[in-house]
Amino acid sequence: MKSYQKLTTDSTQVPEAGEDNVDGRPLCHQKLSAWWLGGGLLMVAALLSGVTVWVLGQIWWSQHGTPPLAKCVSIPEDLRFDCYPERNTVVTQELCEARGCCFVDSEQSSGSTNGVPWCFYPPDFPSYTLGSVNETELGLVGFLTRKAKAYYPKDIEKLQLSVEFETDTRLHVKITDATSPRNEVPLEVPPVTKKAETPYIPLSSPRRTVLLNTTMAPLFFADQFLQISTLLPSSYLYGLGEHRSNFLHSLEWNTLTFWARDVPPTESFNLYGVHPFYLVMEKTGAAHGVFLLNSNAMEVALQPAPALTWRTIGGVLDFYIFLGPDPNLVVQQYQQVIGFPAMPPYWGLGFHLCRWGYGSSNETWETVKAMRNFQIPQDAQWNDIDYMEGYRDFTVDSQKFGALPQMVEDLHKHGQYYVMILDPGISSTQPPGSYWPYDEGLKRGVFINNTQGEPLIGKVWPGLTAYPDFSNPDTHQWWLENLNRFHSIVPFDGIWIDMNEPSDFMDGSSEGCSQGKLDNPPYGLNPCSTRESIGTSAHYNLHNLYGLMEAKATASALIKLREKRPFIISRSTFPSQGKYSGHWLGDNRSSWKDMAWSIPGMLSFSLFGIPLVGADICGFSGSTSEELCTRWMQLGAFYPFSRNHNTQDEKAQDPPAFSPAARTTMKEALEIRYSLLPYLYSLFHRAHLQGDTVARPLFFEFPKDVATYSIDKQFLWGRGLLVTPVLDPGVDWVVGYFPRGLWYDYYTGSLVNSSGENLKMAAPLDHINLHIREGTILPTQKPGCCTVISRGNPMRLIAALSQNANAWGDLYWDDGESLDAFAKGDYSYLVFNVTQNTFTSAVLHSNVEATHVTVDVLTVYGVGEEPKIVTVNGKEWPFSYLTNQVLTVSDLQLSLSQGFSIQWK
Ligand SMILES: *[C@@H]1O[C@H](CO)[C@@H](O)[C@H](O)[C@H]1NC(C)=O
Ligand SMILES: *[C@@H]1O[C@H](CO)[C@@H](O)[C@H](O)[C@H]1NC(C)=O
Ligand SMILES: *[C@@H]1O[C@H](CO)[C@@H](O)[C@H](O)[C@H]1NC(C)=O
Ligand SMILES: *[C@@H]1O[C@H](CO)[C@@H](O)[C@H](O)[C@H]1NC(C)=O
Ligand SMILES: *[C@@H]1O[C@H](CO)[C@@H](O)[C@H](O)[C@H]1NC(C)=O
Ligand SMILES: *[C@@H]1O[C@H](CO)[C@@H](O)[C@H](O)[C@H]1NC(C)=O
Ligand SMILES: CC(=O)N[C@H]1CO[C@H](CO)[C@@H](O)[C@@H]1O
């Protein structure tokens, strides 16, 4: 440890990257340098391969007092940081100046009608001073001290700041109370070994971007109010969920709340999950990401400077900064911290059907039979809460759902699966001795208590309920035993965990909100959100983690019960949720607008490391129409998690419920999905292995193309398949953006040679536009009724040649359900490529799994000239060639487990 001297210079000049002669001594760390300049300026710069500069900013101090108006007015509106963000408060000059802030009302804001705050911080508002800076193994540590009281109670005087360069591309900045411990999120960040790191990809030109600049507004660190603001290097900001918004966030004075909440998706509301992570596309096409690891109720205020303010009402300021430099790497680096998503079972990628209000097991069963009858692919049938007796978990309505066990047996006989809903609320009103889950839960003390140490009672579907405390390991054991007892009656395969924000139909609890400080924080966030607080001390900190903890308990129970990969879909989510579950986007309406919102929702969850995501196809509440449902089935066939789900008392919306024409179109859309499952499954493997996205925003693949930055009506599967759905009623065309390059129509192989333009395409009601990107090889398989069949069908490989006549693709294959198949080596991995008129399949890893799968057809799109001869492993072979430059070689019967080559000249 080396103590660090304050320097005398007043320079605030930013040193250039790699410059050694700045007025300050860099700490001796290979990648991280810190300079402490005059006036309390701390600057931390990360020098990445000598080209990247990253700056934390400065934390400064000056005299407190009412600032002179002239100084206030001179602050540009976009740079006014809100000093009075309290909702439902009319900010007066008196209130504002009592905080030592500038007050400039709307007239003086040059007639501006936007959200420019009237009360904002002067540039010299008092904050913390940095001192005692020492070098540590990975960075530096110092103390921040505050001399003047701020205006929130229990202002913490002395903080510890640590800045650590944990990997070449990840910085960890943590600000905590220097003297006493505070709530921290129990997230285990895996140690990063050099080996596991993703390679650093040098940019062609130096990246001298200031990613964070925290100098414009003061740092606050009181017991129940923590705030830090930063300028952003651009307005291209993504992430920050769960909210309903465009994929690209608006920075027009837009405040987003983070508090898990049961509410139908509505713009500007905080929704079911909490993901304090954002990704920014910088002006150069490079990307970085920031994650605030904090589980308390919080808020992010965005303003057009562009700037961002974090406000949280508990915990610590624990930031991870990911340097990318491309968006795929940012998301991978984020998942190195929160954990990579679980590998789903293969059947989980099939089509799922559900509704609330089938009314009986027989009606549910009839739907499955109708699907089979029309040969529409389906892997899983689900039930909502109506299967239960009085909506109580782990019960079956014996009158209406008496045949449920037989139905599940029948599903299994057909290679299909059963998933049912479970809510966390456990009915507390049954006579003692009649409801094991509650009786046993009470006995074992697994429920969340109120301040008097009694189980806290709220209200959900079954009426009054207690809430399991999933932070307690005893609760996991009790949950497992409940599931085990139920599984012996209904041998379910997957679980849908709903209402786990946790939802409560009452205000706080049956006793209302407590009077304690935790139910009445000095900075009340959105009253709609605090309303749902359950008033125990831990819950204040744990509320946002509830869905994560329940998913963890459920996944571990399912593994014990089935000894196969668990399949779980959760409504509430938190960072690292992908390790345990997928997510659906909640209780949408059957409307065109809601269908369109599903794409930004899905893409945001790709950023959050929860690739298994989809919306309720055809819409949950409200009544769908045949046209809407047809379009939605086409789009939903490309949700990574594909489920049609409906509410009670609405018309049926399962495919058999529609006209023959609509039904056929829906069936065809699902058959395309089933054809593409080998590709989708391989994408999930990459997500599981290293955090690649599955449903991918266009700009991830074209980060230099600014036109892609706001696209959220189209998306990619992986790098190679572009999906352009119709999102409007009454049209038979669609406009889609095609980044520069060659794109081939999935169905015909016809070429689109784009210069980076919007193109209008035919889109009759029975057609969804799909395009393969140049240079891609897609492994596809003949579809079947369900994955158990399709997995055994012959494959067709589709190669879409690049301008240079190359293509690349891969296939991950295993038995589709074993735990840790990859870790145990029980898989096959194949790489396909085309170079110099030769297609090769190379087997890089092989086990018995792939031997019975054959490759039957190779289709090559973009073969410029008709070949004279085609050879397969050196042997001449018949072929067909179409004038739209499509070469097809059929009847191959090649074993997937052996390498082969196909040549044309
Ligand atoms: C830095 O080192 C000095 C001297 O050992 C020590 O007094 C000080 O507390 C250290 N600072 C921090 C933040 O630990
Ligand atoms: C931070 O932002 C302020 C205000 O725009 C600017 O004066 C200062 O130079 C910035 N600091 C760095 C390191 O870019
Ligand atoms: C369900 O169907 C089975 C066989 O078709 C029949 O025996 C049973 O009574 C039905 N159950 C209900 C609850 O309708
Ligand atoms: C709740 O109180 C019961 C006793 O009433 C106790 O056994 C249990 O441990 C408490 N639970 C929690 C989470 O504190
Ligand atoms: C695509 O367009 C570019 C630019 O016009 C041209 O150079 C290229 O040859 C075209 N490629 C094909 C396969 O038509
Ligand atoms: C394509 O396959 C051949 C033969 O297996 C191999 O030599 C070549 O390196 C591969 N090219 C690419 C880009 O993977
Ligand atoms: C169930 C429900 O009504 N959900 C919401 C779906 O989204 C729209 C806005 O897009 C909301 O207004 C609805 O409340």
Automatic annotation (TrEMBL):
GO terms for biological process: carbohydrate metabolic process. InterPro entries: Gal_mutarotase_sf_dom, GH, Glyco_hydro_31_AS, Glyco_hydro_31_C, Glyco_hydro_31_CS, Glyco_hydro_31_N_dom, Glyco_hydro_31_TIM, Glyco_hydro_b. Keywords: Disulfide bond, Glycoprotein, Glycosidase, Hydrolase, Membrane, Transmembrane, Transmembrane helix. The chain crosses the membrane at residues 34-61. Residues 1-22 are annotated as: Disordered. It comes from the Eukaryota. It holds the Pfam family Trefoil. The keyword Transmembrane helix applies. Residues 70-123 form the P-type domain. Gene3D superfamilies: Glycosidases (3.20.20.80), glycosyl hydrolase (family 31) (2.60.40.1760), Golgi alpha-mannosidase II (2.60.40.1180), Spasmolytic Protein, domain 1 (4.10.110.10). CDD domains: GH31_MGAM_SI_GAA, GH31_N, Trefoil. GO terms for cellular component: membrane. GO terms for molecular function: alpha-glucosidase activity; carbohydrate binding. Belongs to the glycosyl hydrolase 31 family. This is P-type domain-containing protein. It comes from Anolis carolinensis (Green anole).
